[in-house]
Amino acid sequence: MKLSDTSSVLFSILASFSTLVNLILILSTLVFRSAALPVDSYDDVLLNMQAAGDNAKVFSYMNSTAYMDGGNSMLPSKRSVVSGLSHMFHANSSLLPADCDELCVQRIRSKRLMQHLRANLKQVRTDLLSVRHPMSYVWLNGKKVVEWYAEIAVADGPFADAQTVRLVPDTGSFFTWFQCRNCRRCYPQRTRIFNPVQNRNTFRYLSAVDDYCQKVQRTPYRLGMNNAVCYYHSYYMDGTTSSGMVVYDTFRFYSLDGRQYIFLPKLGFGCGLDNHAGTGTGMSGVMGLARLQGVSFPEQGFRYLGQSFSYCLPIVGSPADSGWLTIGDDSMPDPTQDPSFHVTALPDGGRSDTFYLDAVDMLVNGFRVFLPPGVFDIHEDRSGGIVIDSGTMITTLLPIAYYPFRDSYRQSMISVLGPVQMPGKFGFDSCWDITDVDPNQLNLPTIGFLLRDGQQFTLGRIASYFQYVSNGGRPLFCLPFIPVDTGDERFSILSGYSQMQMHMAYQYGPNQLIWANGKC
């Protein structure tokens, strides 16, 4: 074959390919099936494919990338990512030469498409996306331990099989980690241990030159770094610890309607190689939701989702996946539209890594306990205050707050179950035998906190008592609060148990908490 013939054939093939790409774009049915896009190209393509026409929008959900034209999507969605460079496929764009004929337009469109797919695009911030994930719990009756978790997928690109990890959503910490295969010390977990080798296209170890590594090294989780590796060490009050390497990977979440996937690339976390579980519930690791220097998952998602997250911890005994976790501004409740939601400020007390409930007193049946003034104030030495900690099981109060509150609660229970009968486990000191009694039929006193702005933060009914079967086989009903040992802690904690069935929404920007009871 002559060289001229070869050139003609190649030109014909390229022209046919360009025409085919153009037709597919016009028909809005382009589906990408590449499972091996390099990390630097598919990274932002997943969420930042630019507009195909001035009014077009693009999705990257559910095993396909679907183009829209004028809002008619191939895939159902709540809202889309709207991005720039809207001239990219526009035949009348000023970016095209004035004398460009149809074949010229096709070639330029095809070239720009390929360049766009391969480019490491800079993220255009949008607050139009939110991700949602179901949340469940583990209840170990033998140990009387409950722990909530969200099962998150770590995906090697949009079309690869994802690995799932069960993470405890923790507003009391800001670093995310989970166990990795070949760990030197591992604890038993309920899902397969994450294998980085399976995610060869998306997984990457970080070093001292990486921005996220430098952020981690400025936190209490730092463990050193060098030109090749970045290390971390996490520790928690229940004795759980994890050490390993700081890494990147791509995570797959659900859209708000739960019918589509959203991929968030280059999220930093810890790959745990030396791990110990204090509670033994079998979770893969922890998802840090608190804020600190851009380290937490929500903070890393700001460029995609906005500065908010929310959750509902399901009631113990409810069906699996009956709770949820969302990240993104689009999922925030609006108290002006729904009066059942309340909004209050989140004081930081000089601790930007901590969410506090700004309370001044406690309430029993809506009446003030009249605790000593300043009992929940946050002090300069980082003591005091009520830390909102979804990763802790039982609410703890400083003794100066606990005992007056407990006495008030006991007094209110006399007309319900009589005087307090016995202590229980976990440090519970106010329990009643409820043999032949249905707690659902009891007229229980409500428990709450009086906030500094005058609002009442009232716990859900199910969160106001703890029921379990004692070793003697008797069903016990207990007040689910304990006094904190001031030698270990110098602050109170609002636990996950106290937040059950509450819609809790956090806004980083205005530093606000939006909440409502039973709005899950």
* Tertiary shape: globular
Low-confidence stretches: 1-11, 17-96, 109-129
- E-strand count: 27
Helix content: 10-25%
Note the beta-strand portion.
25-35%
Mean pLDDT: 74
- Terminal CA distance: 70 Å
Characterise this structure.
With 520 residues, this protein is α+β, with helices and mostly antiparallel strands. It has helices spanning 3-26, 39-48, 102-118, 211-216, 297-300, 302-305, 399-417, and strands at residues 131-140, 145-154, 163-170, 177-179, 204-205, 222-225, 230-235, 241-255, 261-276, 285-288, 308-312, 323-327, 342-345, 356-357, 359-364, 367-368, 386-389, 395-397, 431-433, 447-451, 456-458, 466-469, 475-478, 481-483, 492-495, 502-507, 512-517. The strands form five sheets. It has a 15-stranded mixed beta sheet that branches. The protein has a four-stranded antiparallel beta sheet with strand order 16-15-20-21, with helices on one face. A hairpin with a 4-residue loop joins strand 6 and strand 7. It starts with a helix and ends with a strand.
Give a brief description.
The protein has 520 residues and is of the alpha+beta class. It has seven helices and 27 strands. 44% of the residues are buried.
